[in-house]
Request: fold
Amino acid sequence: MRSVIPSPFLRTALTADAVVSGGVAALQLTAASWLSELLMLPRTLLVESGAFLVAYTVLLVALARSARVPSAVVGIIVLGNIAWAVGCLGLLAMDAPAPSRLGVAFVLVQALAVLVFAALEYVGLNASQRMGGGSAVLTR
Reply:
């Protein structure tokens, strides 16, 4: 597996993603019942996605602090963020649950945030140096 020396930009993007993801995880796990009533989203969805975000945050922190990171793992994070945004939009397109207006805003803000992080991490990966020199440009 190819590794890269993470650029300062990539480290910052991973750290910012970790901070936001960790904050959302803490909110969803500590206030799941209240959020469920306020947002009109299933409590189970909030708890399970919050638990996932705890593990995701740990991964992001580990990567941000690493001297080398597997470029494929960062690529999976970028794709995962895009998939999270698609999932958010899919949730809103479903007939049930029917979130409140604040719930819709909560889901849309998550979708937008993860797309921003995907773009930042993609740019950061491309700015990183492959082990042995050269950039880590992702090909299409």
